[in-house]
Design goal:
The protein is an alpha/beta fold and 338 residues long. The protein is 39% helix and 13% strand. Helix 1 links the parallel strand 1 and strand 2. Helix 3 packs antiparallel against helix 4 and helix 4 runs parallel beside helix 5.
Length: 338
């Protein structure tokens, strides 16, 4: 199945046809699709009117440098600020992770969005694309904070998506721009990068996003194209039964599989349930590649639909939300992280 991107604040006629194409399961929104909460709600309503109630609507609303909807939403601090708090107050940091997640999830659910691709559980070990998006360099700390974050998302009526499996934090290259190769042995990856994934999977996380990173000690293909990583390690060794999602097929590191259509088919053949085609320019070719593929929404994707959320009015009149927002906003000043 595909999750596609659309170009603007309203749907063009050809985008309306995309939403009814076989194999299209949802839409991933970006800052280009957002002007105000009212406009966002209208866009979500229009997409579901055309694509049906099962259509999934998602966004990257991590906080810090990756927050697509800003005006009208709480300005969320990066996850690194929570990790910094952990250094001197672990108990409070765990609470803040849960509160950050609840605020993020409840605001999106009140605006018609099913889920955010969150949390990042990569280790904070210098990757150019991850940076402040990661909680911490220590696998055990990351695991503890990520579990709290998943709890907060669930309390906010939202499924959680761990990313980027099996770990993007320990390789320097940004996969948006170039191919990334992590030469470490599997035992080292298991000991470090896989720990947060394993512990969150035990907490019944709904989805995992794959990295476009090659780990040659395990497989010659990027993880999202690898049956070894998906079927043997993620599903077999870690026992994950939820949705497996690719990273964006337009990223430079995804080019290892060839054309857009070949990238879609390679992800599906490896075991991905949902393939991201985030740029409108690639959507027609991605849809064409779905010919002959299964087009019925599998249960693991249906589990990504958001639970019934509060209205924005009831949310903003909630004293608990006011306390949570005040606490997480105070993180912006911690350690000089903006």
């Amino acid at each position: 199945m595909l999750m596609i991107g659309v170009a603007a604040l309203e749907l063009a006629e050809h985008e309306k046809r995309w939403l009814t194409a076989p194999g299209v399961a949802g839409v991933l929104l970006f800052a280009r699709n957002y002007q105000s909460r009212e406009q966002l709600i209208a866009l979500c309503d229009a997409m579901r009117e055309i694509g049906g109630d099962e259509l999934l609507i998602a966004v990257d609303q991590e906080g810090g440098p990756v927050q697509r909807f800003r005006d009208g939403f709480t300005r969320l601090p990066p996850l690194a600020a929570i990790g910094a708090r952990y250094e001197h107050d672990p108990v409070d940091a765990v609470r803040l992770a849960e509160e950050h997640a609840w605020v993020m999830a409840s605001e999106l659910r009140a605006s018609g969005v099913d889920f955010s691709f969150a949390p990042v559980v990569d280790l904070a070990r210098g990757n150019a694309a991850i940076g402040l998006r990661a909680f911490h360099a220590d696998p055990a700390v990351t695991a503890e904070l990520a579990q709290a974050y998943v709890r907060g998302m669930h309390l906010g009526g939202m499924a959680a998506v761990l990313k980027h499996f099996p770990g993007h934090g320990s390789v320097a290259v940004d996969t948006h721009k170039a191919q990334a190769i992590d030469p470490r042995p599997l035992d080292e990856i298991r000991r470090d990068d896989l720990l947060p994934f394993a512990e969150c999977i035990e907490a019944r996380v709904e989805a995992v996003m794959m990295a476009h990173v090659i780990y040659p000690a395990v497989d010659s293909q990027p993880a999202g194209y690898s049956k070894v990583w998906i079927e043997q390690i993620l599903r077999g060794e870690l026992g994950f039964a939820g949705a497996v999602i690719s990273d964006d097929i337009s990223m430079a590191a995804a080019g290892a599989a060839g054309s857009v259509g070949e990238r879609v088919r390679a992800h599906l053949a490896a075991g991905c349930d949902l393939v991201l085609a985030c740029f409108p320019e690639v959507v027609d070719e991605a849809i064409a590649a779905m010919q002959g593929e299964a087009t019925v929404l599998p249960p693991q994707l249906a589990n990504l639909r958001g639970a019934l959320g509060a209205s924005w009015g009831s949310l903003t009149n909630n004293p608990q939300r006011d306390r949570f927002v005040a606490r997480i906003m105070a993180l912006h000043a911690d350690q000089g992280i903006a």
